[in-house]
Design brief:
Blueprint (H helix, E strand, L loop, with lengths): L1 E7 L2 H11 L5 H10 L4 H20 L2 H50 L1 E8 L5 E5 L2 E9 L2 E8 L5 H7 L5 E9 L5 E10 L7 E2 L3 H10 L8 E2 L3 H12 L2 H8 L1
Length: 251
């Protein structure tokens, strides 16, 4: 059964939102930090190796040899960094756009100052469907409704580690949903394990998920689907072509 209560945002969530809202880098500075900073393995390796290379060159030869070796080292590093930028520039633009969008949403959520505190008691085992980006979860919310979660394989999302550790099979879930962005924050799972982790279905084709999302009303992460969990499972099985499960459900 799902319960929902309107709350003021707790300090921990406000602090996270302030960190996001403080992001004000230009794309040029964002790129420079990610390429020249220690966010890239090439830059990190160069920064750690430079003193060693210079020291060995100086010990093995004179000052002129040291200058030559140092020049070649930094020239090669510069070429590698340039190659890294060429390869990653699309990824960097996407990351910058995501950070900018997160800043806008964080400001709106901070201004609203409220959210929905949601608590779910699991009585029927949740459904898990893995894909290339993470895992999709459906849980019975009671009153012929189903909670939908689209959990990315991201170390910053606590739900991903809860899933990997099997803690999403516990009986009590709680989270806060922000007022403006509708983002899921502060997810936790507690209580007894109500079902043993099994082998989840892995869905490879993106087109399959597109059809499923359309059939379920195109839900977003944290949305409530006006459909019982059993019907959700039947719909997914039908669209994915799982005749054995459809037969079991029909019987």
């Amino acid at each position: 059964m799902l319960t929902v209560a309107q709350i003021e945002l707790p300090p921990s969530i406000r602090e996270r939102l302030r960190e996001r809202a403080a992001f004000a880098d230009s794309f040029e500075r964002f790129t420079r930090i990610n390429i020249l900073g220690f966010n890239q393995p090439v830059a990190a390796a160069a920064g750690l190796a430079a003193p060693l290379v210079i020291g060995v060159a100086y010990a093995a030869g004179d000052i002129w040899t040291t200058i030559q070796v140092t020049g070649v080292f930094f020239f090669a590093t510069a070429l590698l960094l340039f190659g890294t930028w060429v390869v990653n520039r699309t990824v960097l633009r996407e990351a910058y756009a995501a950070a900018t969008e997160a800043r806008k949403h964080a400001k709106a959520d901070l201004k609203a100052g409220k959210g929905e505190e949601m608590a779910l008691t699991i009585k029927t085992p949740a459904l898990f469907y893995e894909n290339a980006d993470g895992v999709v979860v459906f849980a019975d919310a009671g009153e012929n409704r189903t909670v939908f979660f689209d959990i990315p394989a991201d170390r910053e999302d606590p739900r991903w580690f809860l899933y990997l550790n099997g803690d999403l099979h516990r009986e009590r879930w709680s989270w806060v949903r922000l007022a403006k962005s509708r983002e899921v924050f502060g997810f936790s799972a507690a209580g007894h394990v109500c079902s043993q982790p099994g082998q989840p279905r892995y869905v490879e084709a993106a087109e399959g998920w597109d059809a499923i999302a359309l059939a379920l009303g195109d839900p977003s992460d944290g949305d409530i689907i006006d459909m019982p969990l059993r019907e959700v499972e039947h719909t997914i099985s039908r669209l994915l072509g799982d005749p054995q499960r459809e037969f079991a459900e029909a019987s």
